[in-house]
Amino acid sequence: MIAARFGRWCRPALGMLIALLLAACTGTDPSRSTERSPTSGGAARQGGAMTVAVTADAVSFHPYKTTDAASRDYQSLVYANGLLSRDPHNPDNFIPELAESWSLAEDRVTYTFRLRPDIRWSDGQPITSADFKWTFEQARRPENAYPYVSNFDTIAAYEAPDPRTIVVTLKEPLAVGLENADAVVPLPKHIWEKLDWNDPNRNPEIMAPTVVSGPFKLKEWVRDSHAIFVANDLYFKGRPKLDTYEIRVVGTPQMAFQKLRAGEVDQASIPPEDYEQAKRLDHITVYEWWPAAATWSYIGFNLRKPYLQDVTVRRALAHAVDRQLIIDKIQYGLAQPTYSAFTPTCWCYNPDVPRYDYDPARARALLAQAGWVPGPDNVLTKDGQRLRLRLLFGPNSNKVRERIATVVQEEFRKLGVEVEIQGLEWAAFLQAIKSPPFDWDLVVLGWVSTVDPHWMYQVWAEQNIPQLNAGAYVNKRVEELFKQGAREFDRERRKQIYQEIQRILAEDVPYIFLTMNKAYTGISNRIGGVEVSPLGIGYNIEQWYVK
């Protein structure tokens, strides 16, 4: 669950999408990138160091144990993509990554990939099909609890007939078959097969990988302080031009931006309130774009709670949230309202879903209809129970989420609903919302969506409770429609299927959908080689350099 991302992976699983430090968006046409051109000057050269300020530390380097953005960011530096990547300039298409070529048999279910001959682990051992097959077999074992294991449901066989060939057979033809067949990011079998897949105490590679495939190698990681990465000489796209890439964990986005403004770091998020100031600074460039894989914010319901299982209550609370106030006062105009699980950047977007615009009178009427009436102190009660909700946000350094939580608290108070707000450090937040006793009612969060809408099914699937579906939403019709969408090859018919999904989700209100966010980040002008695409920046990080 993420509202920020600056990694390089582009995988089927959510959170493995190229974006960078996403914040909010304006009413500008979201189909168009509005990036500012980088400052010219300074030839590319080898060497130098880059420092990035972030506000949330990673949880671990285990690609098959994490779902948070911070961990994905770290992992994307040390582990290469899988067989393919989406083309950053034409996201509907795929381009080679660790595979040099691929083909689809006439049966439309058998995909054959040919690995590049020059791919190596950082210890010099070749990356082979055995690494892919072993990783696949480990990740799909139920006892290893891979959060995205449902990606493998459609795979009938995963074979490695020779060191450079991978053959993946699906159970049926799928519109998303190629992306589905590209199922794993490989781990080094010759290292990991001797170690425990799950226990960091018995597998040091989980927290401090020593044999990697990405552009950088981990040199040092001090939790909640910093992580230092050094160039991988054996990276298959060529040794990065940067010698060192350092991530510093700071307290808040405001602190990160101050370090960027002072020249203490080379890259940082920009709080919405500082966006205009950042655009005027001579020594940094603000890169900005409307992502093909959009980021959107929401308030999620814990549907385990009996009083929130009443859709009338959820609709009432949705009517009590002033999206425009959030956009104007918290996101400083860098966002636009959204009303369902797919945003205007998706080809399947449905603009005609039920909307719960700000209407306090309608909210009061719906709550009364659901049987909630004011008590002696004006707090709503029903059957002797007060309507008191606990709202969590994370990380606690995220001021945008904190302010959204405060707005929600005040608006709900006007209705007679008590709201307790609590911000948690990122790892503690994830633990709280995904583990018993699930002692929360609301969360302020965001998702980075997928380029193809099919993969968003993971958010709503019953089998993904609680890892991805933290609110425990269950709707079998939605799950069946996602399956239909994956099987449908006609784009227009696929669009109709996903539009129906959006309509159902909007009616059910498992989330209060808030805003679609514009992506932007600030980078010092001493850094060159940065390119912006609909998938964001960072996909060519091996070409970044100190001018």
Describe the protein's topology.
Elements (H helix, E strand, L loop, with lengths): L48 E6 L14 H10 L5 E4 L2 E7 L2 E6 L5 E6 L13 H12 L14 E8 L2 E6 L6 H5 L7 H4 L23 E7 L3 E6 L12 E6 L3 H9 L5 E2 L6 H6 L3 E6 L5 E7 L9 H9 L3 H8 L4 E3 L22 H10 L3 E2 L5 E3 L2 E2 L1 E6 L5 H17 L2 E6 L2 H9 L7 E7 L8 H4 L15 H12 L3 H18 L2 E7 L1 E6 L2 E2 L16 E2 L1
Parallel strand pairs: 1-10, 1-11, 18-19, 18-20
Antiparallel strand pairs: 2-3, 4-5, 5-7, 6-7, 8-9, 9-10, 11-22, 12-22, 13-20, 13-21, 14-21, 15-16, 16-17, 23-24
Helix pairs in contact: 7-9, 13-14
Structural account:
- By secondary structure, the protein is α+β, with helices and mostly antiparallel strands.
- The model is unreliable at 1-40 (pLDDT under 50).
- It is globular.
- It has helices at 69-78, 129-140, 177-181, 189-192, 253-261, 275-280, 311-319, 323-330, 360-369, 399-415, 426-434, 457-460, 476-487, 491-508; strands spanning 49-54, 84-87, 90-96, 99-104, 110-115, 155-162, 165-170, 216-222, 226-231, 244-249, 267-268, 284-289, 295-301, 335-337, 373-374, 380-382, 385-386, 388-393, 418-423, 442-448, 511-517, 519-524, 527-528, 545-546.
- The strands form 6 sheets. A 7-stranded mixed beta sheet has the order 8-9-10-1-11-22-12, with helices on one face. It has a 6-stranded mixed beta sheet with strand order 14-21-13-20-18-19, sandwiched between helices.
- The protein is 24% helix and 22% strand.
- The longest helix has 18 residues, at 491-508.
- It is built from 14 helices and 24 strands.
- The protein has 3 domains: 1-77 and 214-290 and 518-547, Periplasmic binding protein-like II (D-Maltodextrin-Binding Protein, domain 2, 3-Layer(aba) Sandwich), CATH 3.40.190.10; 80-213, Dipeptide-binding Protein, domain 1 (Alpha-Beta Complex); 295-517, Dipeptide-binding Protein, domain 3 (Roll).
